[in-house]
Write a structure and sequence with these properties.
alpha+beta; Serine Threonine Protein Phosphatase 5, Tetratricopeptide repeat; Membrane-bound Lytic Murein Transglycosylase D, Chain A; L,D-transpeptidase catalytic domain-like; 15% strand
Length: 418
């Protein structure tokens, strides 16, 4: 799949046409900025119908776009080069991959130097991906790699990279999958396909970390007189909970002199992306796990910058600033079961009573997580773990959720301010 140069069409007047580039479920409409007036439908009304179809494709309403082209076909009205690539994109987005590929191949034959060439090539690839296993088709994998090398900025490049990473994972090559995904995690961590594969890799990483089987890089520690789980954990910069879990110990008091322990060597760091509302946990600077989070409903209330985890508390007390105090166990305590502060003792990472708000802009500035996931993270990281918060609020990607009405506390708390 080689990329041909685009020469200006000698017929008619050359002009610029900028179309919205938006990633879609089955592929993005990616039509270049220059083409001839002969490519446009001659009938202005047809041109308007094509533009409407394009809007439907961009918004993901592919069936509505296809209905427009069905009506035009019934009337015998041609819709030119632009209309054809819009129709092909609509077929692809509607999951009609075979029809889309057939139309795309015909388009490439008729318009070999079209500004829509890359989109048509992508649709042919997408149809092949829908039917064939990337791992068992060396030629298809080579074509995908070639397309990505030639068109790195194509809106659907994220989907293709994700497909390659998924194949790496299926082949048991987690490191290769991570290497492919890490650039995407900096810009597209909330992309459903990227997140799904990152989540799958993260679960595999976590399972390996918590396994009682020795892993590469682990230290084997022999328990001595006077040792405790806490002392061994602190000496090796891991949490008590992680040391217990990866050794299958349920009671920390049951250590025996001479007992050997598996001690993983971790170096965790956190990255919260406010635009994507994701939290990435890295280990030794390499991707380890991903979580969806909620951040501040008002822009800037989840502050960007470099921080560290200052303290960790189980069963924290919540003081929302209205004079109320919600103690541990209070069913209206919005902090849930875990608290990890990163700015003074005011902002932190914690759970939420409203799991439906995770992934949206719905906090007063804290980073909110699902209960099971914040408990998981709490058991992995130490006080002092670096935290980077980056990005800015993007309401085109995630919703603003107004604050809920919070009932008064049901029990008083005597705990210190979290």
């Amino acid at each position: 799949m080689t990329r041909s140069s685009r020469s200006a069409t000698p017929i008619g007047k050359i002009f610029a046409l900028v179309l919205i580039l938006a990633p879609l479920v089955g592929g993005a409409l990616w039509f270049g900025s220059q083409r001839s007036s002969s490519a446009r439908a001659a009938d202005p009304e047809v041109g308007q119908r094509v533009m409407l179809a394009q809007k439907f494709v961009t918004s993901g309403e592919h069936q509505k776009a296809l209905e427009i082209f069905r009506e035009l076909d019934e009337k015998g009205q041609g819709y030119g080069e632009e209309g054809q690539i819009v129709r092909i994109s609509a077929l692809d987005g509607a999951g009609k991959h075979d029809d889309a590929a057939e139309a795309a191949k015909a388009f490439l034959k008729k318009y070999p130097e079209s500004a829509g060439k890359e989109q048509a090539e992508y649709i042919v690839l997408n149809a092949a991906l829908a039917k064939r296993d990337l791992g068992s088709d060396v030629e298809l994998q080579k074509n995908v790699e070639s397309f990505l090398a030639e068109n790195p900025d194509h809106p659907s490049s994220v989907r293709l990279v994700a497909a390659l990473a998924q194949q790496d994972l299926k082949a048991g090559n987690r490191d290769a999958a991570i290497a492919r995904l890490e650039p995407l995690l900096k810009t597209s961590s909330d992309n459903p396909e990227v997140f799904a594969i990152a989540d799958e890799i993260g679960k595999a990483n976590l399972a390996a970390l918590l396994s009682t089987t020795q892993q590469e890089g682990d230290v084997v520690y022999t328990v001595k007189k006077g040792d405790s789980i806490n002392r061994i954990a602190r000496a090796n910069k891991v949490t008590d909970e992680l040391l217990l879990k990866c050794n299958g110990i349920t009671n920390p008091k049951n250590l025996r002199i001479g007992q050997t322990l598996r001690v993983p060597q971790t170096d965790f760091s956190l990255v919260v992306d406010v635009a994507a509302n994701t939290l990435v946990l890295n280990n030794h600077g390499k991707f380890f796990r991903i979580y969806r989070v909620r951040t501040g409903r008002e822009s800037g209330t989840t502050p960007t910058g470099e921080y560290r985890i200052l303290n960790k508390k189980t069963a924290p007390t919540w003081r929302p600033g209205n004079g109320h105090v919600y103690g541990p166990g209070d069913p209206n305590n919005e902090l849930g079961t875990r608290w990890m502060s990163f700015k003074e003792d005011i902002l932190g990472i914690h759970g939420t009573l409203h799991p439906e708000t995770v992934g949206e802009y719905a906090s007063n500035g804290c980073v909110g997580m699902h209960t099971a996931e914040v408990e998981e993270l709490f058991d992995l990281i130490n006080v002092g773990t670096p935290l980077t918060i980056t990005g800015s609020q993007d309401l085109t990607r995630h919703k603003f959720i107004p604050p809920p009405q919070v009932p008064p506390p049901q029990q008083l708390a005597s705990a210190a301010k979290p």
